[in-house]
Specification:
Length: about 550
């Protein structure tokens, strides 16, 4: 069990931060204290080591506090294993008093009483494994030989962990933003905003009374009934200015999290902003997300175009020396990045990869010329949008692959003559299998009189808002940005309503909730129901740097 393995960091992992623990470390900090707390790396670069019974020592990431108590310090549960919070407000208070603040449901299987820690009892727990009430700590807790200065540093650090006001949270309101880039599709933009505004209106319609902080956990249901306020952050101009625009918007309208959102060819500036400002960015509608799973705050449905690249690389696994792959794409579109990734992967196997880029103004003649590069025996990969697919000339005798995301998935206008020879990547569940998962969203659209004009965007937006609502309901009054991300990681795999996707799940170190896809063919009779060529595939992820 993962938590059983990582629970060894109960308190002492932070202690080695010593003098640096006195500072209030921002969540996005790359300081040595943050590295130790989150990754188990000490200031001198050595891994943190904890001694356990029977000589079963642990070190490095397995000894990091965040591995069990999480980045927020608010703990976690998995199965019958519960890791308690270690923030100052909980650690230095009797357990019987913080039950009311954290909620009995979140503390299942914990003892109902424990005296609060002070520096002396903290030292005893770390060195000898005994809590303030004289009880022996779990065998999962290792022992550390640490000095008084380290204990003092620990107490100081924990006192500030997940403390203070959270931006975007007031006694009455939770503020959220959604981000729209300048190149976002206008139809999808309108469709997404209609879903979000309706969801927020519905949520607020159920609020009764105020949102005062109640003291009895018997009244906990009412403690999270805050109004939701949506702020639409529309970006303008060159992408080099987007981060500055986001900082200005955030300063003027502080928000608790960014929900959904809509991008076009580029999303990296938004991703960077969220990581640097420690703002959760939850499931934006983007086909080219940033692949950086060591980052914390940005959660996506899938790796999008990068996942398609890995699917194609897996399918083209037999390509080797003497084989040729011809890729056709338009410069400046997301297909150019995907083509470069695929070329790097299969080129390393010895295949010859030919790129035939089209300029922004290239027409049908240029497209035909690019396609004529492919000879019998070659593989042809098309990273093209619907307008180019409609203009495809008579096919050449080659095996072809097409990006489903770029082509429009079920609505891909692939000419009939191409359908028998073309494999299309398909990153969602098959239509007949996703019917049940889609029924909730479609029913909600119908009841709310929302026209379906961009179904995938609208459904993904609806699911993102639903995930947010469920996570917040489980947080009680612990409105911390880190804790929001952690709650989503914990609860997502149990969610039954997943929309277009067969399954959604996250874990620490995972930032993409859907991991695979199909290869399909479109029927030659011209219908739009894709036919799977095999089972759902979860490809090995290519080794490539994150676009930052």
């Amino acid at each position: 069990m993962r938590l059983a393995t990582c629970a060894i960091a109960l308190l002492a992992a932070v202690v080695a931060a010593a003098g640096g623990a006195r500072a209030q470390i921002a969540d996005a900090s790359l300081s040595s204290v943050a590295a130790l707390y989150r990754q188990g790396v000490q200031a001198d670069g050595r891994p943190l080591v904890g001694q356990r019974e029977a000589g079963l020592d642990v070190q490095g990431a397995a000894a990091a506090c965040a591995a069990c108590h999480r980045r927020s310090g608010l703990g976690a549960s998995e199965g019958r294993t519960t890791v308690p919070p270690i923030t100052g407000s909980f650690l230095f208070s009797p357990r019987s008093s913080y039950l009311q603040d954290f909620g009995e449901a979140s503390l299942t299987n914990r003892r109902a009483h424990r005296e609060g820690y002070d520096e002396a009892s903290l030292a005893r727990a770390i060195r000898d494994g005994v809590d303030p009430s004289g009880r022996t700590l779990s065998y999962l807790m290792p022992r550390y030989a640490l000095g008084d200065a380290d204990i003092h540093a620990l107490a100081t650090y924990l006192s500030g962990l997940s403390a203070g006001a959270t931006p975007g949270v007031t006694e009455e309101t939770l503020h959220f933003a959604t981000v729209i880039t300048p190149d976002a599709d206008p139809v999808a933009r309108a469709a997404m905003l209609e879903v979000m505004r309706k969801f927020f209106d519905d949520k607020n319609a159920f609020i009764r009374g105020g949102s005062r902080r109640l003291q009895s956990n018997r009244e906990i249901h009412f403690r999270v009934q805050r109004r939701w306020q949506l702020h639409v952050w529309e970006l303008q101009g060159a992408e080099s200015t987007w981060e500055a625009q986001l900082r200005a918007k955030s300063a003027a309208e502080p928000v608790f999290a960014i929900v959904s959102g809509l991008g076009g060819r580029q999303w990296a500036p938004v991703h960077r902003f969220c990581e640097r400002e420690a703002i959760p960015c939850l499931f934006p509608n983007v086909d080219a997300p940033v692949v950086a799973e060591r980052d914390f705050y940005s959660l996506y449905y899938s790796r999008g175009i990068h996942l398609e690249t890995d699917l194609m690389a897996a399918r083209l696994g037999e390509v080797g020396p003497g084989s040729r792959v011809v890729q056709v794409f338009r410069r400046g579109d997301i297909g150019a990045e995907a083509a470069a990734e695929l070329a790097a992967t299969i080129g390393a196997r010895g295949a010859s990869v030919v790129a035939r880029p089209l300029g922004p103004d290239a027409g049908a003649a240029d497209l035909q010329s690019a396609l004529e590069t492919a000879q019998p025996g070659d593989r042809l990969v098309l990273w093209l949008r619907p307008a180019d697919l409609k203009a495809l000339p008579a096919p050449r005798p080659v095996e072809a692959y097409v990006s489903g995301l770029m082509a429009g998935m079920d609505e891909a206008p692939l000419p009939r003559a191409w359908r028998g020879m073309t494999h299309m990547t398909y990153l969602v569940d098959l239509p007949e299998r996703r019917r049940a998962g889609m029924s909730y969203a479609r029913g909600w659209f119908k009841i709310g009189n929302i026209p379906v004009t961009a179904e995938r965007v609208q459904t993904d937006t609806y699911i993102a808002c639903g995930i947010l609502a469920e996570a917040l309901a489980d947080m009680l009054d612990n409105f911390r940005r880190d804790y929001l991300v952690e709650r989503i990681e914990t609860m997502l795999s149990h969610r039954l309503v997943t929309g277009f996707y067969p399954r959604l799940s996250l874990a620490p170190g995972q930032r993409f909730a859907s991991k695979g896809g199909y290869f399909v063919r479109l029927p030659q009779d011209g219908s739009s129901t894709p036919v799977a060529e095999g089972d759902w595939i979860v490809p090995e992820q290519s080794s490539k740097p994150a676009v930052r």
